[in-house]
UniProtKB/TrEMBL annotation, chains A, B, C, D:
Protein source organism: Anaerostipes butyraticus
GO biological process: amino acid biosynthetic process; aromatic amino acid family biosynthetic process; chorismate biosynthetic process
Protein name per the record: Chorismate synthase
UniProt cross-references to Pfam families, sorted A to Z: Chorismate_synt
Gene that encodes the chain: aroC
Lineage of producing organism: Bacteria, Bacillati, Bacillota, Clostridia, Lachnospirales
Family to which the UniProt record says this protein belongs: Belongs to the chorismate synthase family.
Residues involved in FMN binding: 125-127, 283, 298-302, 324
Length: 365, 365, 365, 365
């Protein structure tokens, strides 16, 4: 069992490595009858592309998605949607000095331990390019969610410890700076710091925040398939993510019950909460308020300065990782986090349609 | 699909509510031929019991586990192991004033939204008693892991913001104080703070840390079933957990690549890492070093002081939650976190036995 | 992975052996809000009980089901329903001479090969008692289906090669003879033959037919989860079943396209078929007509006459299987086939509720 | 949930329709380290191609498989293997008169009922072309099985009621006639009959038999994932298959226990069976003897003669299905049955590697 599928009612299976023919995904379970075209998916992939700034990679990747199946006369048929993005500009020669060594912070060593050998070409299956399948599928999921009135907003909350401020929060800023930060001032500070990092041949990490509006109460399963547990798995499965928290998250660990509880009240005949320390999910089920979570992204491991490591033959060596790599990956991970959130949420909605006899009768007849 | 199962190769299905006949779990996929008896499981359940101190609940719960199937002549048969713990001392009368209101911080409202009505008796399926099945299964999983040389240590790293200190770390202290803290000094500070909380009719949260030794490199799947992603889901599925991080976790978000990378070196012919910022998992696969993660536990929502909420009929009301409940749940959640870690890890090992042709041939013939 | 679960949206997990404490099942995914009590389930179990005639076993089994969870104030809660039937009258002494030998036609040898040893007490997990969990769950599934207007009728179509005749078909006869045959004349012939078999210490097999009315068109998934493929797996998983066919089944193999195709026509504004060679399923999806399938049941392997076999130590031996066993199992398998059909069909309905955007919007809002 | 995946440890996900860009499959869980190239797969696909004789379709389909991922330096990497076969010669104009009518015996009507509309171009997802993904994956599975010493032989046992005879059985004949029959005489009779069918614009069905040698005892799971139950589901999921039986199958239903039981005996220190009425599987687990099963294939529904049906607008109409279609599909279904058997068996082997503690310890360390 190789873990390349995610979801049950809305299931995605990704495939592809950096230097194979391409990467892609098969989406099974997308409801029939929704309009879908390459452009819907391409705009998500474009948010992922490196080369958007000098702060992310200079590798040129002309990733064009092609829909191979599952769409007829512009609408989803309900049958599997197969998407492919062919690989083009992946220069093999950049990676020759790492063929037989284990790069610190990368999965080279662990893949070897598991499989006996690995595809050394640029990280193989563990590379960032694997995220293309996730983002393509996320684009499809996001479109279905929009039809249901659900919207997701994702951005960098902090990079290199420099945080956005609530007072300066401006959604329109997100697309205006290379860091996807909704705060012009913070983005400028990050720009300065990033310039220094590039000089010092180092890298930085950050925190990505995701805000989901429009989810009605009742989505999620109690016990093991709690909606926040599934979001945690989905987001933690993205390479370089080392933490996940929802609502107040780790801050809740040092608060008091009287402060942390969200009290309920009536407003216009609807139940709402006065606060949202829970982050929109209670007992694993959505409560109707905004779902908000954060993920911690470690600094990208590939840095140009020298590092100590070992070779496949068991010798201590020093390596310098040449080639083109990102001094920070947070900006391009933003759309990946958003995609995983969309996929998880749609899966949660689709597998919960028959929770009560009334719902079943409503749809069965 | 109601999400009451966890795992694939080692799968557990829990059942039971607070005031039904009992709670239990069915374990499918436990390898045959291991010695197992009620005592192996009981000692884990006893770590979960409330009434261990005045800081956890005074409810007396004589939880005795009974093995109903799956064991013959003292050994596992490979067939499903069904475990039951009968419910005894759950006084219905304690809950009458909450029958028609939504308690803040609890899943009452969300259950209602999902199912149309809920079992109001003490939280039904969302209550802490549901964890009995998890812990019973965790005991079985932990025993299999011990046979493979894997050991798990879990404790409270912080309560109410009071952290243990590395200098005073003492494993033997864990069983000596009611908080499962491996630091006598910190435990005393917590004791003082907890006494104050009880007076103020409030509650506190904390952080639970879990350390796993002995996992060989290569366990876990790349992409979606990464070992850390599955641990995240497993632990986040525990009620009251609002965050998960592995290795440096959220601290990695503000560190630099040169600081965060774990360099490799040879020692006695084996590959080891100089540091362990990664927390034992790289690219979703174990790297042979200690696996270490933390979970954030929110303050228990049931507090005696008045709270604003709404009734099922849509009226604003104030409630006081009477009855016996925990001023802190971190201590009793420790063994639940350990159980989920054991179950997840064993599931990861069992479903990865045939990753290479050599492994398959070794076992098939 | 031990294969003790069936289904995804409506999932059942059975447990228990002949001589353990009991047998049972956990049902996950039953929609909330349906009335359910022990009697609903007991009446199904009673159809399964041996001792109903001299033609089925004289073992007395007082199987009383107990609902341990998942029902509150007489209605399903949507949380797992745990059912148990305690074991009583299973005399160990009947099986002592088979402890170390492999009974022909039974799973003794194959279990040993798989697990290294087996629970010899009356077949362990492979015994007929394992079907109790299936039937109990089937009773619950059947009740949900009835609420949706779906009804299942199951009976013995043939025993020992003696077939019922269409002209004499009488549904009321099913409960009037020990063979569950809807044909009085055929039942009498079977009675004579069965008497002879008992004298000759031999056993007979038969064919069970299952007729399902009221399934609307559109249930089932194309490709791998075709409704007939899932029914095949469900029914073939019953011990002693060696064949499955739907509609004309194997007769279709020697017919012509012009004979086998079911032509469509309009009737009262609805699409119906003139014939039903397909058996109600086309392309794996229900077509609105009666679903009809058959399963072949082999003769019960436990016979009193001497048989050649080998012992665990690798010696050729002759055995005589003493104790109480069925000269025919077809009659008691009838309700097991019906139960698996109900479970499969309900699972198919529940996991297909969101096949189109219209359905999803209808239920989501 | 759309049912386009099969298997758990060895999982395949197929995609593609007749007139989309292509068809394909993603294989997840293939063990790493096995040699694999396009030719290994192409030779299986070539057995599927129509146009091999005047008795199967004259459509020219140049199906060339391309490996897009999962293979590096000629060996499987353990990561998903994505295979694609581009669609070429599918003339749209052949299908214009069936756009708005439901063809008898096809899934047009049931797809419409499920999805609200359908891709009318040549059957969409329900067409025979969907089997390309299955066969491609089957080729990979078969190669792994061969490495384990397991071999599968599949052929047409009967067509149009004309059966092969045991006395004339000749394996070499299978590749010598267009019907894949291992009996020259029977093949000639079928040829005559088929010529008549073509004149009469009709079609015929048949029975495919599959023989698997080399499976060691112990493969399969008791209860629900019995090896024969999974084979039944796998084979019944192939379009046009209406029945499945193993060993004596439906003949066992009219035999006696004394005739049907396979007695055990020792031979050269190994346990063997004197007969094989069981067909190689007991209690759902392989017993070490030959596994043999049969599937019933209905006559191909597309015939040129007129048929009564209805249009999407609810009118009774008569249709003549023009275009190029098979007068019999049994010959090209032979390799599809073999593929599903290989996939099922490999999945069964891979998910059962850790059935006992001894096996787990053997592989874990």
């Amino acid at each position: 069992m190789a873990g390349s599928s995610f979801g049950t009612a809305f299931r995605i299976t990704t495939w592809g490595e950096t230097h194979g023919a391409g990467v892609g995904v098969v989406i099974d379970g997308c409801p029939a009858g929704m309009e879908l075209c390459e452009e819907d998916i391409q705009k998500y992939l474009d948010r992922r592309k490196p080369g958007q700034s000098r702060y992310t990679t200079q590798r040129k990747e002309g990733d064009q998605v092609e829909i191979l199946s599952g769409v007829f006369e512009g609408k989803t048929t309900g049958t599997p949607i197969s998407l492919i993005v062919r690989n083009h500009d992946q220069r093999s020669r950049d990676y020759s000095n790492i063929q037989d060594v284990y790069r610190p912070g990368h999965a080279d060593y662990t893949y070897d331990a598991k499989y006996g050998f690995r595809d050394y070409r640029g990280g193989g299956r563990s590379s960032g390019r694997e995220t293309i399948g996730r983002v393509a599928a996320g684009a499809v999921a996001a479109k279905v969610l929009q039809e249901l009135g659900i919207h997701i907003l994702t951005y960098a909350k902090a990079i290199a410890g420099i945080e956005i401020s609530e007072d300066s929060f401006d959604e329109k800023e997100i697309g205006q700076n290379p860091f996807y930060m909704p705060d012009h001032g913070a983005a400028e500070k990050v720009r300065e710091y990033a310039d220094r990092m590039i000089k010092e041949m180092d890298s930085v990490g950050g925190v990505i925040e995701c805000v989901i509006e429009g989810v009605r109460p009742g989505i999620g399963d109690p016990v093991f398939d709690k909606l926040d547990a599934e979001l945690a798995k989905a987001v933690m499965s993205i390479g370089a993510v080392k933490g996940f928290e929802i609502g107040d998250g780790f801050r809740a660990a040092s608060s008091r019950g009287s402060e942390n509880n969200d009290e309920f009240m009536m407003q216009d005949g609807k139940v709402i909460k006065k606060t949202n320390h829970a982050g929109g999910i209670l007992g694993g089920i959505s409560d109707g308020s905004t779902i908000i979570f954060r993920s911690a992204v470690k600094p990208t491991p590939s840095i140009a300065r020298g590092q100590q490591t070992v070779s496949r033959d068991g010798e201590d060596v020093e390596i310098h990782i040449k080639g083109r790599h990102d001094p920070m990956i947070v900006p391009r991970a933003v759309v990946v986090v958003e995609s995983m959130a969309a996929i998880t949420l749609l899966n949660g909605i689709l597998k919960n349609l028959g929770a009560t006899m009334d719902q079943v009768k409503k749809l069965y007849r």
